[in-house]
Amino acid sequence: DPLVGEVRGTGLIAAVELMKDKRMRTSFSDGRVGVMAKQFCQEQGLLIRAVAGNSLAFCPPLIISNAQVDEMVSMFGAALEKTLDFATREKLFSR
Fold first, then answer.
1. φ/ψ of residue 4, rounded to 5
2. 95 part of a folded domain
3. Which of 37, 42, 76, 83 has the fewest CB atoms in 10 Å of its CB?
4. What is the reported pLDDT for 94?
5. Which of 17, 12, 24 shows the shortest CA–CA distance to 1?
6. Cβ atoms within 10 A of the Cβ of 44, count?
7. Is residue 32 part of a domain?
8. How far, in Å, CA of 16 to CA of 10, rounded?
9. Within a domain: residue 46?
10. Cα separations in angstroms, 95 against 7, 13, 14, 39
11. Residue 28's domain spans which residues?
12. DSSP 8-state secondary structure symbol assigned to residue 61
């Protein structure tokens, strides 16, 4: 995804950092993109936290199944598409 600048984590605890330009490691100027990404995730049925500007934190239950992980990733992908559309429309990101 063009917005994903970094993914970090240990075990099932992870964070995805959204960036304006991942090649140059340029962050967005404020946390609006992270807040909107969180909202779009919630619309998909995925509960995550927006943390540290434009980072999104995942902490699923330890009993999550492989099928549920696949579903979580699919929901997140759909939310990222909406986030990319938002960031492009608001002229925060250019494709």
1. -80, 110
2. no
3. 42
4. 83
5. 17
6. 16
7. yes
8. 12
9. yes
10. 21, 30, 26, 22
11. 4-89
12. -
- Token reading at 72: 């979580």
Strands (E), 1-95: 4-10, 13-18, 49-51, 55-58
Query: How many domains is the chain built from?
Result: 1
Q: What is the CATH number of the domain that holds 80?
A: 3.90.1150.10
Confidence (pLDDT) at 52 = 85
- Tell me if 35 sits within 8 A of 25, measured CB to CB: no
Cα dihedral 45, 46, 51, 55 sign: negative
Read off the pTM: 0.91
